[in-house]
Amino acid sequence: MAAALAVPLTAISAAPAAAASCNLSTGPYQRQVESFLGLPVNGVQSASDCKAIRSFQAQHGITPTEGYAGPLTWRTMSTMLAQRAAGKNPNRDGACPTNVGRIACVDLTRQLSWIQDGSVLKYGPVPVRTGKDGTETRTGHNKIYYRSIKHWSTLYNVWMPYSQFFDGGIAFHATDKSMWNPPGSGGCVNMTHADAKAYWGLLRGGDDVYVYGRKPGT
């Protein structure tokens, strides 16, 4: 069953704001950020704007968490909008091959992943968190070669639940971080626990994985 992609246009939560003071300066992406958050769009920073922007930043671990409508905050929102636009046809441009049977597709540009079986969408699309600048998730066509349901990373000293390795040390695996938390992973394709578990149930060793595009900011 395909999962629904839940990327809220308004992502204000009860997450606590960081200790940094509120920046009342008008940012270069003020209007865009106001529109995304459903705020009055006037292009001028206000105390209420700053509070809403800080809440969004705190929810996704964007620092400094000071309510400034800067490039990183707008880049995160732009990625969310691109993900929403994908709808239920993430492969409408045919960039991910569909002639190999079951395949997990990873679009770095939109930070999206999904599973296809031929032309049939089996799961997704779902947001993912891929490699940061300097440890980018490599592009290319590979196959899952090792699976570990409760993998321990000796490199980062963290658990990597539902790990499915497909390119050297690069794997699909669950994380507790927000999928929109910058700057990104150490190269792996991070997923929510629910999505990583679903991938674990749908994929097998030898299944194809195709990674393409370029993550914004890398």
TrEMBL record:
InterPro entries for this protein: LD-transpeptidase, LD_TPept_cat_dom, PGBD-like_sf, PGBDSf, Transpep_catalytic_dom
The keyword Transferase belongs to this UniProt entry's keyword annotation: yes
L,D-TPase catalytic domain segment(s): 101-212
Pathway annotation from the record: Cell wall biogenesis; peptidoglycan biosynthesis
Keyword Cell wall biogenesis/degradation found: yes
UniProt keyword list: Cell shape, Cell wall biogenesis/degradation, Peptidoglycan synthesis, Signal, Transferase
CDD domains named among the record's database cross-references: YkuD_like
UniProt signal peptide: 1-19
Positions annotated as active site in the UniProt record: 173 (proton donor/acceptor), 188 (nucleophile)
Top-level lineage group: Bacteria
Protein name: L,D-transpeptidase family protein
Higher taxonomy: Bacteria, Bacillati, Actinomycetota, Actinomycetes, Kitasatosporales
